[in-house]
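Title: [Solved] CBASS oligonucleotide cyclase 3D structure

Original question kept below for reference.
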Amino acid sequence: MKSLSSKSPSHRRLTAFVEWIRTPDDREERIRNQADEVRRRLRGKAESDELVIRSMPFSGSYEKGTGLRRHMQGEAEIEGQDVDIAIVIHPRSVPEDADRERLIERFLSYFRASYPDTQASATRSSVRVAFVGSKVNFDLVPMLAVDGTDREQLLFRSNGERRRTSIQNHSEFVRRRNKRSNDLPGRVKFNECVRLVKWWRHYCEGSAQQIEEVPSILVDLLCAKAFDQHGVAATYTETLARWFSTMADLALRKRLVAFDDFGPVPDRTVDDRQWAVLDPVNPDNNVLPMAWNNLHIAELADWLSTARDQWAEVESFERVDEVDKSRRVLIELFGNPFKHHGEL
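Solution (posted by the thread starter after getting help):
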């Protein structure tokens, strides 16, 4: 079957839309300035309390280039760019296990002392901060450096669980795929496709039955697996049609999703959940939420398979020049914002 042209209406609309959904440059700059101030204040509080901070790297969508603009109108409510800041502490400054398990509590107190008028609360593994004026959320994640390095960390959760991870390797995992797509000719890029999938995910969550939230890391890994199999095509339309077909198959058949970026692919799953999507940095970690069961997996699989069929419709309509029909399906995929920001 002949490929769609990069001049096709659906590709041009998606190009305009993906430009709009990215976090605007001026907002990125304000976020970085505010993040730098948060890091400076927390470092001062921690070091006055005799904690040795090894590093405070950015992580999450902010570092990977997959964040979204804030949009709080209509049925597609997107909170916008969240910023994850890891706080990597020298292990010698927290020698006792009891003190290590209180790191989240300690940093919550540091933040409240630094920003008494800002909302902050403890989550399972971070301090969640909401700056009202700038409408930016921060996740401050205290962790210990492993073996005296900054490349691996030990994450402590409020339930006592400890998890080995690497902030740098998580970012590197996405950067490798960004580079591979950036080195290819054409407009379609890995991180921009991830943005589109994340926006679609948020739109689906608005009418979810079982799922409260699809974690961003799950989206990242499903997209990475689809990219590893198909790369990117000349158009967003064909790329996302292939990606959603692959992601739907992975979820419907509950195929193991694993990667060999930082070690061999495990030959078995890690727990008794029905589907395993393994963290490429720590394959002992299944990134599916612990609360998910077959109903949650089935709902996600239904979203993905419905989207797969919708992308096939978009391609079919494009091939017979039914431009208005393809646009209507794209609005079904991305919500009303596509009406106004996916224009030719």
